[in-house]
Amino acid sequence: MRFFLRRAAFYLFTAWAAITINFFLPRMMKGDPVSAYLQKNQGKVSPEAIDSLRTLFGLDSGKSLAQQYADYWGLIFSGDLGRSFSKGLAPVTDVIATAVPWTVGLVGIATVLSFFLGTTAGAVIGWRRGSRADLAVPVATFFSTVPYFWMGLIAIAVFSTTLGWFPASHAYDKSSRPGWTLDFVGDVITHGTLPALTIVVASLGGWILGMRNMMVTVLDEDYVTVAEAKGLSPRRVLVHYAARNAVLPQLSSFALSLGFIVGGTLVMELVFSYPGVGKLLLDATTAKDYPLMQGVFLVITLAVLIANILADVAYAALDPRTRQMEA
What we know:
Strand order of the largest sheet: 1-2
Radius of gyration: 24 Å
Distance between the termini: 9 Å
Structural class: mainly alpha
Order of helices and strands: HHHHEEHHHHHHHHHHH
Number of strands: 2
């Protein structure tokens, strides 16, 4: 219990610091969302509407910075992240909610798939160190050094333009009607296969190399030697003794990867014109839509914190020594 309380206090403080920085950072930047909105709509907004916009964006000159900060916390607890002027003054929560499922569905599945494939392959390669299986490491590492955008362009040129197996862009065909139908779901899967494979291939090498190196280290430990001396089957030694301990450092990296799923892979979404959070953040930055930028940053930060909390819980469950050291 002491372990979980200490970690909870740490993450609560981190969340407070992140939200506070998220509040002050846009106010330290040059200009404000109202000024940017007025530049796009010169002569179309009355002085009364300008005052209403400043109140709407939490920039009321009649309130002190401390009052604005308190109001910001109240809006967060009520689920109100402001209005996006680049999206027709639509609520930021609604704008983000439309982009998050696309990113989580694509990047989330690709990240989880690459982690399990890479970790499993790395464990087997490390177990059979010195064999021909080691040849897979430099090949996977080579693909992981190739930039996302370059690999995406190659994938489009080969599998879309030349072979015509997959679409080159967008999340679904423009003629499709969104809905929970087999035709639309199949269309989404077809459009998402190529960018998902790009993410898997590009990130597979890191998981394989990390797990393989940890396996080589763990196999020299005494508990593995004792397990083999007891006559346990190689599979049991691999799964329950070697791989279980070797995978622990991988969990921290996996937690960060899960947290940044919400942020998406910006370059990949640009290459494939995918309507995810990464592209939404770029559009908000280009339009100087501070409320939308602020909302996206907040969602990404909270996602990373939640992912790290889950990783700590999993780490403590798999390795009791962690709980004992914290206690």
